[in-house]
Amino acid sequence: MKVWHFSExxxxxxxxxxxxxxxxxxxxxxxxPKVAADLxxxxxxxxxxxxxxxLNIMVNEHHATATCIDSVCTIPMAILARETKTARLLCLGMxxxxxxxxxxxxxxxxxxxxxxxxxxxxxxxxxxxxxxxPANSNPADxxxxxxxxxxxxxxxxxxxxxxxxWEGRYFHYRQVNVWPRPYQQPHPPVWLTVNSxxxxxxxxxxxxxxxxxxxxxxxxxxxxxxxxxxxxxQGRTATPDRFAYMAMVGVGATKEEGYGRANHIxxxxxxALRVGAQFAxxxxxxxxxxxxxxxxxxGYGSGVAMRTMQLRNGRQVDVNSATVDEFIDAGICFAxxxxxxxxxxxxxxxxxxxxxxxxMMGQGGHITHEDTVDNLTLFSKEILPRLAELGRAxxxxxx
Length: 399
Hints:
The protein is an alpha/beta fold. The chain has helices at residues 15-18, 33-53, 74-83, 102-115, 132-135, 142-158, 197-206, 216-233, 255-265, 267-271, 277-280, 288-294, 324-330, 338-352, 369-398, and strands at residues 2-6, 56-59, 89-94, 120-124, 164-167, 172-176, 190-194, 209-213, 243-251, 308-310, 316-318, 333-336, 357-361.
């Protein structure tokens, strides 16, 4: 099993001042560039440490928000491509449906792949619903635009005999000719984020790695089953290395220390949807049935989108008031001593039928740099070697 450390690069100093709105309509006068500079360097130091600890690195991007100041994911990837030597570099991901220059995406990923000598993994994502407004994109045709961008990016990376013309529905280029071409052939591995069985089945049909983010004990098995169905329809076997799962992870020398770290990191879940409801459900972004269900969420009428999570017994709890134990029960967090964390990961791994990648959010919220370093180091020394054995067992079972 491969493990990837993920941080959203939160600008948490502004959270208390902004209250219920952390996205879209937040004035950037509340972002002190000097504080932001310190945070960027701190987060980069923690990612570079992963190279020494045997962990891989995951980045993402968001826009107009205090929950994530990584607004251009390829910038930290470029720094890390030079400063690290062995860690794989995953962007999960690039919201290509909201990008208006798909060829530029192909150029950026290709250049990063060359600088890193073939360590880049490309994540293509639909993009969060509340980022439709800042991008001024049309939510009704976002997926059609996404797949055209996907096709154009891969063609740009794999065409080596001179320029080609592209006249699609959304993108028009007289000459496409990407220099340099990517280091990995035919192109870096492709990942998709999925949140439903429908999108997972498409991932399976294409053979891509899928990342399910905080889908928990209840939803993940159905998502993985749909991927396997999609893979089988194309004559492929869905091996564990096609599945990735993201969870918050807090490790400590004692249960209390691990829980304390996890509690800080879980502020990711508590703040992710602190956004006005007018931005959370743009018409056409998802199916009518999914939108109708979302409108029933607690707090919608107050103008703020809120979220509940489902425990293993099906009970719904508010993420804002849930305990660390409830997050563990939901399968969204693994926390405690190294032994406890390994057993929690193993239990979840077995429940969903195995996965080959753990996307570990080892930093979040107000956790200190010192606690983050200790969290990552403990995980690397005490848990990572045991996960390798777990991964080998899963591969043997799949074969």
